[in-house]
Design brief:
230 residues, 11 strands, 7-stranded antiparallel beta sheet, 23% helix, alpha+beta, disordered N terminus
Length: 230
């Protein structure tokens, strides 16, 4: 074999080796679309895990809602419809449809946020004060208004702890009697029933607030007990 032929063979071999390195090296470093991170989420998905929560029926009338991730628990009437949110929990209070009334909404919310507590800016405050919940003191504010015949009532309680604000809010909305065509004795009965429903719901809401308790967040696993990849 001539010298030129040997040089050509060596050059071809070098080219084949370089191409093989590029081909196999590029494919082995490509990430797999099925690989998931330790939180059980697909790679590239930054969504936070859902809060750790649990609901337990403590009696025929009451249930316990506990959210270890947000650090609190409350007891509430089992008849309330519960809906967990990213920042707490929402309760829809049932409205007795057999009564003559114009009540359209009864709702209680518990939300947790970081930072200092601040009630929404309002021009008229019906009541302001504090209540004791165990060894804790909650601030309270109550507001009411009437717009286009609808009556709105809100009561809020707040409590700060370790840089977090726990805010309780009760919302009541009653429609205009005209919207249901109520007149005479029916109108009087509806107005009386509205007042009774408001008081009963507000009292139940306050009882829930007084059941508030702080809950320790989930403890981390001892790092010496964490499984090893080796």
């Amino acid at each position: 074999m001539s010298k030129n032929s040997k040089n050509i063979v060596i050059l071809v071999v070098v080219i084949v080796i370089v191409v093989a390195i590029i081909w196999f090296g590029g494919h082995s470093s490509a990430p797999s679309s099925g690989v998931q991170n330790p939180l059980g989420q697909a790679a590239g998905n930054s969504a936070a895990p859902l809060p750790v929560s649990e609901t337990t029926k403590v009696s025929g009338q009451a249930s316990l809602y506990e959210n270890a991730e947000l650090g609190f628990s409350v007891k509430y009437p089992t008849s309330w419809e519960k809906d967990q949110t990213d920042t707490g929990v929402q309760f829809i209070m049932p409205i007795d449809q057999s009564q003559v009334s114009t009540v359209a909404k009864l709702e209680a919310d518990v939300t947790v946020s970081s930072g200092k507590c601040a009630f929404p800016p309002v021009t008229t405050v019906d009541d302001r004060g504090t209540i004791a919940v165990g060894n804790m003191t909650f601030n309270m504010i109550a507001m009411s208004n009437s717009v286009q015949g609808r009556s709105y009532t809100n009561r809020m309680y707040s409590y700060e702890h370790n840089g977090s604000c726990y805010l309780f809010a009760f919302s009541y909305i009653a429609l205009s009697p005209d919207s249901k065509g109520l007149t005479g004795s029916d109108l009087t009965q509806a107005q009386n029933n509205n007042k009774a429903i408001l008081k009963t719901s507000d009292d139940a809401f306050t009882v829930m607030v007084k059941s508030f308790a702080l809950v320790a967040p989930p403890a981390g696993k001892d790092e010496t007990q964490a499984p090893s990849s080796k």
